[in-house]
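Exercise 7b. Backbone tokens:
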């Protein structure tokens, strides 16, 4: 509910920030990865986005879901392949998330009463939500880590607590 409310709120204020938030939430991309995207990274035909030169230094791809496809197709109007998907007003790469994101979070009250800064809803929370949803749906941690571009399984382990039934099922399988 909160994710949908946030996306709806962002869409009202800026389609651009809505689209960046959608890519973080539906693809697990980091803000820097989103801001570096160029149209030649978007492969509508085969349904994937190439992530080049990410933080992990290992190029990867993410799958274009139907909602992401619709969003990106709405934004595409014949730009040159090397053009940025999310340029600044001057056409340069962005270096930070638009303030509209923080204003939307504030309007929705998502951080009201939250004292611990680690618990606050920030842009990176969308990437964590993507990972959490995958683990809760039973996607193996290895696959989640690959989708997130983690260098090691240890980085993905922080989501293991979201799938305690997997541990029970694994232990129970020995009884059989």
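Sequence design result:
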């Amino acid at each position: 509910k909160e994710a949908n409310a946030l996306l709806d709120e962002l869409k009202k204020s800026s389609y651009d920030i809505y689209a960046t938030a959608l890519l973080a939430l539906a693809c697990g991309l980091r803000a820097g990865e989103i801001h570096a995207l160029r149209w030649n990274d978007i492969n509508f035909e085969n349904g994937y986005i190439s992530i080049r030169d990410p933080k992990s230094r290992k190029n990867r791809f993410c799958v274009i879901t139907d909602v992401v496809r619709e969003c990106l197709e709405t934004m595409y109007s014949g730009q040159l392949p090397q053009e940025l998907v999310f340029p600044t007003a001057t056409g340069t790469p962005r270096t930070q998330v638009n303030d509209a994101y923080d204003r939307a979070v504030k309007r929705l009250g998502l951080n009201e009463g939250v004292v611990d800064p680690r618990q606050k809803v920030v842009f990176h929370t969308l990437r964590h939500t993507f990972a959490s949803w995958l683990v809760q749906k039973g996607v193996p941690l290895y696959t989640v880590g690959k989708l997130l571009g983690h260098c090691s399984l240890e980085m993905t382990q922080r989501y293991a607590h979201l799938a305690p039934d997997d541990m029970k099922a694994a232990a129970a399988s020995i009884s059989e």
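Instructor comment: The chain has a mean pLDDT of 86. The radius of gyration is 18 Å.
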